[in-house]
Amino acid sequence: CKAAFRRGQELFNGVNANGRSCRGCHNAQNNGSNVNGALFDVGTSRAQFRRAGMPLYTVRNTSTKKKHETTDPGRALFTGQWADMDKFKVPTLRGLAARPPYFHNGIAATLNDVVRHYEKALGFRYTPQERADLVAFLEAL
């Protein structure tokens, strides 16, 4: 429905109650990736979201001795930098509905699961209607 799409687009581009915006990371016009090629940690590699069969690594910062559990170190695997831990490329959103499962590790089977993940991992807040509207927008991309 066009009304749901429009409301979802407003939610995507607007600032959520938690002070964040989908558009903050997905900022490339007509594409949805990141203009600067920035990488982000959206919580997909956290131990709490680990699915059966996924590895779990414990890494330790040699300077601070801090330990971190992750299913995938992300960019840090290549750079060796602690600051790059769990950071991944922002994917294009074009044709998103045709490419499940979602996230680099497939932890979200549906677009509704994607929105739910952002609620749990990053504190986005949506009513059931807002969630449905946002999914309607993402399905139309």
Give a quick precis of the structure.
It is built from 5 helices and 4 strands; from the N terminus they run ααβββαβαα. With 141 residues, the chain is α+β, with helices and mostly antiparallel strands. β2 and β3 form a beta hairpin.
Major sheet details = 2 strands, antiparallel
Enumerate the strands of the largest sheet in spatial order, edge to edge or round the barrel.
Answer: 1-4
Measured between the Cα atoms of the first and last residue, the distance is 14 Å
Give the mean pLDDT: 96
Name the shape in a single word: elongated
Radius of gyration: 16 Å
* Count of extended strands: 4
Derived from helix and strand composition plus strand pairing, the structural class reads alpha+beta
SS summary, helix count: 5
Order of helices and strands: HHEEEHEHH
- Note poorly predicted spans: none
Percent range of helical residues:
25-40%
Proportion of residues in extended strands = 5-15%
